[in-house]
Model the fold of this input.
Amino acid sequence: MVTVKGVDPRGTQHCETSALGVLLRHQGLDLSEPMLFGLGAGLSFIYWDSKNMDFPFLGGRVKPFELTRNLAAGLGLELVVQETGSARKAWENVATAIDAGRPVGLQLDSYHLDYFSTKVHFGGHIVALYGYDEHDAHLVDTDQQGGAVSTGLNSLARARAARGPMTARHRSFTLTAAGKVPSLESRIIPAITGCADAFLDPPIANLGHRGIEKAGKLVPGWLQRTDAPRRDLPQAALLMEKAGTGGALFRNLYRDFLAECAQVVDSGHLRTGHRLYSEAAGLWTEVAALITNAGESGDEQCLARAGTVLRDIARIEREAMESLSRLRGEAPAG
Done:
């Protein structure tokens, strides 16, 4: 068995930040999960629906791997990404890194992993690989999936080779703190204002605060959108609360990030953003409960109420991001 020494196999709530935490702690950089999420400008929103989808999807973060790229750029880390169409070459890429004593991040389809508790195809799942033997790969996933876990090498190969929405071509990556990492204080404000800019001025109406407002108009019709409301509506709500989001569609993570930032940066705009995201997080959990109740009871009034709350959330988050965008004038040097 080959195992990277000095790995802290601590799973957290969200897959990408769990993997990033493993890789960065091995480089001597131990940041909280909310800080990783926020410095990676991970917060977003998308209302995703198309003809080939059984049911709409509400997403609360940027697309897979964008968070990793944002974090590496912001902290001045060397990010080396390898992709290939060859399963043999893909394994060589990761085995070479493990043999050299470096943990590796992998993007794959979680459906094929032996330990995964819910068999749903998701091609944007990210894990950290820190060891292997002749039969199994040893990974770090979220707390919900078991933290330090193992899966058969064949199942890992299938997961990495999968094709479909959000998948990558056997993507693997390493992170290196090559030089002096910038101070957190110098990186907090650019990360927050960059996230706010994208949220306030989305390119299409399905994204950002406009997407939340659109969801407020469309969610009330969800009972007519499905032939299996007792399955589809509770499942949609479960994805909002439990599927590695940290609860409240990632708003709990962003709220906690802003609270941590407020200990470093003294700003009324930051405190306002934190207060508003604390409010929004509670409302997102309320929306998930209303959607679940609608699916189980068939009561359209639950969805009408959810639509009203979503429109309130769109306003609250827009106001929060407008306040946070004003941090730009307070950015410290360095």
Remarks:
- The mean pLDDT is 94.
- The longest helix spans residues 268-297.
- Residues 90 and 263 are 42 Å apart (CA to CA).
